[in-house]
Amino acid sequence: MTQPTTIRGEQPLAAALFLATFGVPVLPLRAGKVPFGNCRACERTACGGRPNMKTPGPCLCPLPCHGWAAATTDPAVIGSPEWTWAWREAAAVAYHPGGAGVTVVDLDDAEAIAWAHELLPATRTVRTTRGEHWIYRGTMPSANAVRPGVDVKSTMAYARWLGPGTGTIAALPDVVRALVVKKPAAVRPAAVTVPAPAGGGTCPHRTPTYLARGIAMAEQRITEAAAAVHATVFATFLAVLSTHGRCGCLTEAHTARLFTAAQAKGESPRHCADAWTNALHRLGL
After folding, report:
1. Distance (Å) of CA 118 to CA 27, 50, 121, 122, 166
2. Is the dihedral angle over the CA atoms 77, 81, 82, 85 positive or is it negative?
3. Fewer Cβ atoms within 10 Å of its own Cβ: the N or the C terminal residue of the chain?
């Protein structure tokens, strides 16, 4: 990402269009650092997205939406009628770090900043309300609370745009990558037998990226479930099948990924199969 040195215009829409010219995928934020949906159908999760739209989630509208999945560099989309209302009400501009080829180490307090100065290589720094963003060149999986006061935002995440910052962007170091490396699970998920996809129709989706994003968002929704795992798994299966179950694009590999994510949260293979079957029946597939 080539960082802009300034933002022309004080309005969120003008700032977003300017950032997009530098290859920074942008999206509007409401007050409280919460993203809008990308169209009127997504307002207040009428589309079926996750509560309060605080994180990405499966959506029944025809476009990828919520959070990082809605970020774009296309000026025609940014200035489209579907987003005009959101930019008028926006409190800030956010961007998708992974889409811009960078990783943001979000340091929330003085202790976290001191830790970064001690262990991380110097890089471009942006002041935030409570701390600092340290920006590195390169992408990696995102994770919250990797240590006290430290979040990592890169792929499948968004961060507020708070200015270009100071300093030269350094390459993403191994010490940051190691923050989100998980220890191997002691028990591997059981083998999964996945029911055949319901497809057979003509796929209406414009690009394979739409399906890939949908499956990744569904996996994340299951993985991040802190409670009501059974209900979350069923709702996620239902949302995926609502969007992709009637065409020919959903494969066994895709559904196996969802089953594996559910088993990693403690669901049994039987519960996964039952939830999938019930979702198919609910939709008449």
Report:
1. 33, 38, 9, 10, 19
2. positive
3. C
